[in-house]
Amino acid sequence: MFIDSREMTGDPVLKCSVCIVGAGAAGITLAREFVDARVSVIVLESGGLEFESPTQSLCHGQATGNVFANPDQYLMTSRLRYFGGSTNHWAGYCRPFEQLDFEVRSWIAGSGWPISLEDLRDYYHRALPILDLPSFDYDIAQDFAPSRAPLKFSRNSGIQTAMIHFSSPTRFGLVYREELAKAKNIRVLLHANAVDLGLDPMGARIDRLQARCLSGKVISIEAKIFILATGGIENARMLLLSRKVRSHGVGNQHDLVGRYFMEHLAMTAGEVIVTLPAPALGLYERKRDPLRKHSSLGVFVTTAAIQRERALQAFTARIMPVPQKAITRERRNLIQTISRFDQLDDSSRPTSHERNGAVSGWLRVVAEQSPNAASRVTLSEERDQLGLNRVRLDWRVQTSDYSSIHTSLRILGAELGRASLGRVRLGVRFAEGELAPRNNGGNHHMGTTRMHSSPRGGVVDPDCRVHGVSNLFIAGSSVFPTGGAEGTTTLTIVALALRLADKLKKELAA
Predict the structure, then answer these.
(1) On the CB side of 12, how many CA atoms lie within 13 Å of its CA?
(2) What pTM was computed for the model?
(3) Are 288 and 368 spatial neighbours (Cβ–Cβ below 8 Å)?
(4) How many CB atoms lie within 10 A of CB 71?
(5) What tens digit of pLDDT does each residue of 102-111 get?
(6) Which listed CATH number (3.40.50.970, 3.40.630.30, 3.30.530.20, 3.50.50.60) goes with 2-56+63-509?
């Protein structure tokens, strides 16, 4: 059932078993797991069913740091505040985390999850149909013609080919709207903005959540369980705003809420001339799989072995073809020269590819940012229409993040050259400790309520329960201790939401 909160009479007090704040990928996944169960659920959504400027303006805040190319627009454009959340502008990239991503990596301070890939494997599989995805456990070469087969590097190469699969993309607000509307045990309150988590006097549990409409109407929710699922910035903001009982906010006894903000570092990092035929280059473009009717993208990745050996972070790169009109005569001559040079030695060339000259492209990189306590979400003095402190984001990237990208690019260039598959010219450089050009990331907000087995290391425990608050849980990428590389965010958000739903069902049944 959908209810426009603005049309409710009085200032109601509503009761339920589970209150979910936020109706994006995490919140809707959680709600669907309780459809027709003997559990009453209320979902609070800040916006309506369509985009509305007054509600979207609640995202406005201050953005600073050493990264932004366009800080003024980042907070307003990187999230959507209406039913379906940011799946309403999601591109559909999906890829599971690798085993190494969960491990403590001695060269990355703050790395390591308190859960393993094995803990999520079944949930990744359960997430696939929710995101309209095929199975990712198949040989990536099977569904491609020989001329499009993935590039084969040597077994001991530091570079391999991996696949990213594309969701339709699934717009949760459209695809799952009718299912939630028909569910008799679920109420979705539109235009209801959470404004305070009411801790009990001991600070051990949430007694009541207060929500407010932009019109001023106040709604109170009493529930057995509360779940924040409003994204990597708003989850932290809500905890920091709720300071009536604890002056530092909820779950913030060790000053960790809002810290460790991470993004994916995305940039065009150089040029590449590949001496494989144009049809094979198609693998590295978004291409629809004719057998499974889904799109896939081939990317270069650094192997776990080379990451350990060279102390690197997760990294992906893909070839973006350069339009013919952008290729100068000088570049065309260079392409022809490299093509003739590489044809002198066929020893490493994949046998399935026929020679067809060389092709020019850009290298698009998406890489992992390491956890950094100085990169954080705090509250500013400015107030929004609800009277709440707006957010201040200070996004800080460390020099080691940039040097990892630089080293990974050099390894990629060396491996392509060794295999006589191409040449790379880096378009990034170090200047006073920073990498140029700067970037606006992938719009993936992570890490601000990070998962850790100890309250001194994170905000939530391995079950996503806020340390010290028995009935408050957090869903979404804000719980990620590390971010992995391209495509890992939404698929993992849904998998973690499914895992949390299973744990809550057991808890409610006890």
Answers:
(1) 13
(2) 0.91
(3) no
(4) 15
(5) 999 999 999 9
(6) 3.50.50.60
